[in-house]
Amino acid sequence: MLGPVILAASRSDKMRRLVSAAPVTKPVVERFIAGEAVDDVVPVVKHLADRGLEVSLDVVGEDITTPGQSTAARDAYLKLIDHLEGLGLGERAEMSVKLSLFGQALPGGHELALANVRPVVEAAARIGTTVTLDAEDHTTLDSMFAIHEELRKDFPQTGCVIQAYLYRTEADARRLAANGSRVRIVKGAYKEPASVAFQKKTEIDKAYVRILKILMEGEGYPMIGSHDPRLIAITQELARRVGRKLEDYEFQMLYGIRGEEQTRLAAEGHRVRVYTAYGTDWYGYFMRRLAEKPANLRFFARSILTKG
After folding, report:
1. Catalytic residue at 184?
2. Is 0.70 topped by the overall pTM?
3. Out of 16, 58, 92, 134, which one is annotated catalytic?
4. Is 264 a catalytic residue?
5. What are the Proline dehydrogenase domain coordinates in residue numbering (predicted)?
6. What DSSP element (H or E) covers 302?
7. Are 290 and 29 in contact (CB under 8 A)?
8. Where are the beta strands (DSSP E) in 34-124?
9. Which of 184, 273, 288, 289 is catalytic?
10. Mind listing the pLDDT tens digit for each residue in 88-99?
11. What is the C-alpha separation between 245 and 91, in angstroms, rounded?
């Protein structure tokens, strides 16, 4: 039951200051965050590519308050794309973007986010890659899906994310699968009320499998965001059952988690993409990683007690 508490803390300025100031925070954060600047993350992309892996790059920091910050976020992605192009890494790295970082929650946010994300999608296409729109809390999803639909008119490879714990997601999956989208399915990492989302792990896991079946039987390109060995095995069995080849879907895992499993799946011929976050405003992302898995929280708490 600690997950909801941690997710609430991810929005607390007081907790942000406390965690950021803890002496042990930096080495623990480095487990999940690839660095603070483009120059930090590019060597990580190279290293992962050398292991046969691909990446999805996320510039962290969705809690913005001004249009100027949203423009700065856009420019950070454009700078990243320029670096990848110069090193010939474009085809190994897609971009993941949270529309809140591009101004979605500000006045006129829908139009602002669309205006900011479009140049990033255009630049990604220029170097042979694409963009996936991350899912955030349930109140943002209608806007996200509308922007996704608009971008796909010119860039049909643009992806989006759906979250298994939301009641609405099975219907979203059927619509997206029929449209042939690139769709990443995850369990969900935001604090959502029982009125819109399953609360029990067993219910979320069952929903994940139902949605995964819809995607695997559909016309799109499923991206399976999970570290769960059982869900990975179910994915492989569903792929065999519906006749999907290895290049017709991919696994996605977080940077810093189950690296050996990532390499193993890639060695078997699976396409494996590592979700790799970087940037200075890492707090919200870091806290969601702690909330997702109790082992992550125990690791961090033990570090504070023994070294703080």
Report:
1. yes
2. yes
3. 134
4. no
5. 45-301
6. helix 294-307
7. no
8. 54-59, 93-97
9. 184
10. 888 889 999 999
11. 20
